[in-house]
Amino acid sequence: MTAFLEGCRAAVGAAHVLTAAADMAGHLTDHRRRHTGAALAVIQPGSSAEVAAIVRLCRQYRVPLVPQGGNTGLVLGSVPDTSGAAIVLSLTRLHRIRSIDVVNDTLVAEAGCILKNVQDAASAANRLFPLSLASEGSCTIGGNLSSNAGGTAVLRYGNARELCLGLEVVTAEGEIWDGLRGLRKDNTGYDLRDLYIGAEGTLGIITAAVLKLYPRPRAQLTALAALRSPAAALELLASVRERCGDALTGFELMSDVCLQLVRKHFPALRAPFGKAHPQYVLLELSDQESEAHARQLLEGVIGAALESGLVDDAVLAASLGQSAGLWQLREHISAAQAAEGKNIKHDIAVPISRIGAFIDTTDRLLAQAFPACRLVCFGHLGDGNLHYNVSAPAGMSDEDFLARQAEVNRVVHDSVHRFGGSISAEHGLGALKRQEILRYKSPVEIGLQRAIKQALDPLNLMNPGKLI
């Protein structure tokens, strides 16, 4: 591989071809530190042309490549296997905001742009880029699009696919497809943009994107409501949507187990209520009129829910600081779980109307199969996406619990399937769920996906072993 690496050095500069173990280490281990792979090198191109040059070299020498952004994925999609045959293609040097068009409400960002930097660039132009994730300070736009990321605002604005109008992509042949068209209507054939979004780098490499912007809301207000059940949360969702319409931008469900873990491991975060409740909903309104109008809407809908007995208690944030504090309760759940010990995570989606029945049924099935296991259920109720996680019973070692991961997954995923859902809502399949998905998709659907992969990447060099 000496000639290949020399070619890479000539294409991107010797300083951006990392081969020393210490230099590569941070690129080889996944975000949750479950897997460490090996690589021939980590290559850091600085432009789309350099990405294309590296892909052509990979094609010439038959070297697999693993595209990587912020390496914040949760399904082993952005790290190599242990063979050491592949390179990691790090896109973090592609970090320019190329342009902002406030009349067209679009922003062109390169794939290595940190999500938070894109949000800030939009804000500086008095616009909103609404994609919002817990990892927004380190995840990148390319990764967001490759995994079709969701986040907390999908209810109002949609997921990453719906926030993208056009792409620039380096194909598996090393050609650059310039699809950076900021058009909301373009009916001229197959939608290649949607093909590459969510493909996890298995068909080509996204190098830049045209992203949708929105007017910045004049007010954002947050409330936390305490309820008796997920079914009550669904009733509240219907009520808020009927009264507030598109002003409802966030609707997050959290069980009491979630808040207990947060309070245990982050005691500085204040308990919102004087006593525990079975379920909580964190909801946010964004208003284009005024803060007074937003507060009137929020107070009205929460007041009606309290009066009817649908909600047992509620807290309305009176300031930005209080709002941030309520959101921190939600955003610290994953970190609290990690501090508590190993857990078995599920990123699932079911039709919104069936979420209550899914939780009740699956809770019961798990309690029967794994007595005393702890169910840490939270997520984006407004769009049907739950992080339905299972923690070990008190006193059981992580190793003993994780040894039963396949059994736990079978109970959860089979239940998801029965309720008409998906075993991956926003994290993707990566290497972690690549085999699992074969149990739930039809041979016709799998065959179509494999045909697309064969047509666009016949040498199977683009992120092999992932997704399909």
TrEMBL record:
<dbReference type="InterPro" id="IPR016167">
    <property type="entry name" value="FAD-bd_PCMH_sub1"/>
</dbReference>
<feature type="domain" description="FAD-binding PCMH-type">
    <location>
        <begin position="35"/>
        <end position="216"/>
    </location>
</feature>
<keyword id="KW-0285">Flavoprotein</keyword>
<dbReference type="InterPro" id="IPR006094">
    <property type="entry name" value="Oxid_FAD_bind_N"/>
</dbReference>
<dbReference type="InterPro" id="IPR016166">
    <property type="entry name" value="FAD-bd_PCMH"/>
</dbReference>
<protein>
    <submittedName>
        <fullName>FAD-binding oxidoreductase</fullName>
    </submittedName>
</protein>
<dbReference type="Pfam" id="PF01565">
    <property type="entry name" value="FAD_binding_4"/>
</dbReference>
<dbReference type="InterPro" id="IPR036318">
    <property type="entry name" value="FAD-bd_PCMH-like_sf"/>
</dbReference>
<dbReference type="InterPro" id="IPR016169">
    <property type="entry name" value="FAD-bd_PCMH_sub2"/>
</dbReference>
<dbReference type="InterPro" id="IPR016171">
    <property type="entry name" value="Vanillyl_alc_oxidase_C-sub2"/>
</dbReference>
<dbReference type="InterPro" id="IPR016164">
    <property type="entry name" value="FAD-linked_Oxase-like_C"/>
</dbReference>
<dbReference type="GO" id="GO:0022904">
    <property type="term" value="P:respiratory electron transport chain"/>
</dbReference>
<dbReference type="InterPro" id="IPR051264">
    <property type="entry name" value="FAD-oxidored/transferase_4"/>
</dbReference>
<dbReference type="Pfam" id="PF02913">
    <property type="entry name" value="FAD-oxidase_C"/>
</dbReference>
<dbReference type="InterPro" id="IPR004113">
    <property type="entry name" value="FAD-bd_oxidored_4_C"/>
</dbReference>
<dbReference type="GO" id="GO:0071949">
    <property type="term" value="F:FAD binding"/>
</dbReference>
<keyword id="KW-0274">FAD</keyword>
<dbReference type="GO" id="GO:0003824">
    <property type="term" value="F:catalytic activity"/>
</dbReference>
<comment type="similarity">
    <text>Belongs to the FAD-binding oxidoreductase/transferase type 4 family.</text>
</comment>
